[in-house]
Amino acid sequence: MLKKLSFLISLNLLLTGTAFGQSDMPACAGSDISAWDNCIGSWTYAKGNKYVGEWKNGTMTGQGTYKFSDGRQYIGEYKDNKYNGQGTFTFPNGEKYVGQWKDDMINGRGIFYNPDGSVQESGIYGNGKLVVAQYIDPNTLIVNEVQRLEAKRIKKEAEIAVNKAEIGQSSTPTCEGDSNSWNNCFGKLRSNAYTYIGEFKTGVASGKGVRFDNYGAKFVGEFSNGKINGQGTNLGKNGEYFIGDFIDDRPNGKGIKFAADGSIEESGIYRDGTFRRSQFVDLIQLAEAVRLREVKKAEEKRIEEIERKRLTEEKKAQELERQRLAEEIRIKYAKEAEEKRTREAKAEEERRTQEAKLAKEAEERRVWLTTPEGKKFAAAEAAKIKMEEAERQRYFAIEEAKAKKQEAEKLRLEAKQKREEAERQKTEEAERQKAAAIEEARVKKEEAERQKALIAERARVEKEELERQKLARSNQSTASNGVIAADLSQGKDSPYCEKMKNWASGSRELVAAYIGESMSSISLIRFRKGDLSCLAVIDTPKGPVNCRVEKIRKDEKSGVVYADLRGFLGDAVCSVLRTGEPNPFVH
Prior knowledge:
By secondary structure, the protein is α+β, with helices and mostly antiparallel strands. It has 4 domains: 2-136, Histone H3 K4-specific methyltransferase SET7/9 N-terminal domain, CATH 2.20.110; 146-281, Histone H3 K4-specific methyltransferase SET7/9 N-terminal domain; 371-475; 478-576, no CATH class. The protein has helices at residues 2-9, 145-167, 283-369, 372-475, 500-504, 572-576, and strands at residues 39-44, 50-56, 59-67, 73-79, 82-90, 96-102, 105-113, 119-126, 129-133, 185-190, 194-201, 204-213, 218-224, 227-235, 241-247, 250-258, 264-271, 274-278, 486-487, 511-514, 523-526, 535-540, 543-554, 561-567. The strands form 4 sheets. Strands 1-2-3-4-5-6-7-8-9 form a 9-stranded antiparallel beta sheet, covered by helices on one side. A hairpin with a 2-residue loop joins β15 and β16. α3 (283-369) packs across α4 (372-475).
């Protein structure tokens, strides 16, 4: 393969070409190729080899295509009739080399392909030989002139945009005032990190613009919301540059990274500023996408301008309508004011005419009244007025008398009502006192009956008490240490127990307890809870006393239940015999 290539590069008449439709050079004129300069021409040599491409100073320089009569072909860059730059050499059997050249020799990064498209070898070449074998990304090699020219065009346009930005050249109106209010204008804004020159919208960088950072790099492209967003070209300080898509100041999407010499370092897909996947990127498609976006923006701007003009026209029409209405209102008010002034003048004129008429009539009447007939009329008129005044006075006198009579009648009725009210209250008071007397008599009668019943009850109780005292004295000899017998029946007066032992062995507990010291004759009965209606006989120095159990209380510490006693007839002994209280009868 290298021998085949050595034969080819030994030729001095090798030319470059392709995509000349992209070039703006004119066609070469005449048949003397030594005179061809900065033009595009086609030349066929004696052996049938043919070159189509760019010429400069009579040499093949620029982009061109050289086809050999045996089927070989070179497409790429030339300088002084030699391969120089990027080029592709294709053999008749389908093999081909894609890469860099220098003075007709393979020099730099390149790839040899087999006829089936597989890679035969790749790496770094020097003077036609493989020096370092290594993988070469085919997407980093420009395979056609269209791509090369497009890259140069985009870079050139970016450089022109930078120059225009630096001198402030723009068709957009210049921004004025506070930068926060810049809108749809061209301005320059500096920050600590960079300087931006371009279009603004709502106070931030939006639209086309150029950004210069503090390290010498420049970005030319689309901005939105103050950041790089869209298609753009980033020019490095050392000549390297990047063409591709950006989102929020970072490469995102398709892009190509070029070295300073124009060779491709990376070509593919970027995510958040990082190269993720190698891929061929068509700059024509990228440019077309930009062009379509520009067309869309231009259309949107045209529609916006049409809408703005429409709104302006509407506003103007509204202003004219407002002025027309204001003029109509002014004319209406002026007309009404004039009509009012006319009416007032007419009324004033009528008033003056009427006053003059009345004055004339008054003067005529005054003169007429000086005549005998007038004096007679005046006297009759005066008599009539006097009579009418007398009639009026009489009418007022009658009305006044009638009013006084009505007032007197009103006072009489009020006095009558007061008397009737006093009589009613007196009657009600007498009936109330009568009812109170009857009620008092009934209460006194009931009290007398209650006293009578109480006396009878006292007599009965005293009788029972005497009998119980007798019984208590009779049982005194059987009660040990002054223990007292008690009747524990529920609400009934049962016979007294005969002996203390009967209570001790009974179903209800009965225990004697002494109060104070040396109390052999005075005791307190203790009962179980529930014996609320029991009767207890207390033996005192004054004799036995019959008491009723009034309340049962439990001592929380000892657990013993005590009975509070009270006498039937209010005896003081029962009143003081309470648990824990000293006995006043003990001396």
